[in-house]
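Can anyone check this?
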Amino acid sequence: MKIAILSPVAWRTPPTHYGPWEQMASNVAEGLVKRGWNVTLFATANSLTGGTLQAICPEGYEEDRELDAKVMECMHISLLMEQAHEYDIIHNHFDFLPLTYSRLIRTPMVTTIHGFSSPKIIPVYRRYNDICHYVSISNADRSADLRYAATVYNGIRPGSFRFNDQPEDYLLFFGRIHPHKGTADAIDIARQTGHRLIIAGIVQDERYFNEKVKPRIDGDKVSYIGPVGGHERDQLLGRAKALLHPIYFDEPFGLSVAEAMMCGTPVIAYNRGSMPELVRHGKTGFLAGGPGEAAEQVAMLGTVDRHACHEWSMEQFSVQKMVDDYVKVYEQVLSLPSPSPAACQDVR
């Protein structure tokens, strides 16, 4: 069995700090490699894998702004599609663009939909409903227009997030700084409760950061430490009293939410999108309707068992669980009849 994993090329796979889609492509690839699968990862040339790496892009276009994103994406996708016949199955983590090749190749393609950047892209997915196999990353993030093979939750590596039952007295905001993520709300919640807040993540919206966040950073009660990865991320998440996740959009999945809970850290999140699937209200954290309610829930953190947070995340959001679920999808797809010659054309 030969499988090709198609990762995005905005960042290295796995990313050094930010790049959730790249991280999931890596986690799937490495999880399969550990099980003895023949895996080829299509990613940037500076990517790391225990399988075979194929690359045409030297590095992520977000890491080298001299690279043209559209050119890199075009060459990257075509690199795989020109040799698609060499693989038994393709697992696409690259959004909708690779779907446009699906009638030109015979290799079945599983596509993980990591979120809809806009309703305008749904017609592309809908056009290939009959030949592609879609996987949602939460039940909340599904379109009624599409047919799905399964929901598979994102999986994280337990070895990268150690359980900590002795937290420090700070709250944490961990994620991209953008109005959708509610960084300013996290500051409000921390101030209402008299807690120190640490903010970690990339600045994705400079105007929002400069107007709503930066003026309130004092280095004491509110600190911004930039993007964090690796061991530092593990330490930061594990030592927090709670992760604040005050989102203003229907988030398909929250990696930092699963990561925090794996460390034993409870999560206080706004009740939107996939959050009810990730956070067990009253058990692994709380779901809030706004900053006032979230502030009240900070006082209730003592009722949350950090062991329960860890066990829930291990059970639902580990790489092992994710790979198990994807293998079931692959087996299901490979058991289906091959598409008719009229449905696709072989480019060999």
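Reply from J.R.: I decoded it. Confidence is low (pLDDT under 50) at residues 344-348.
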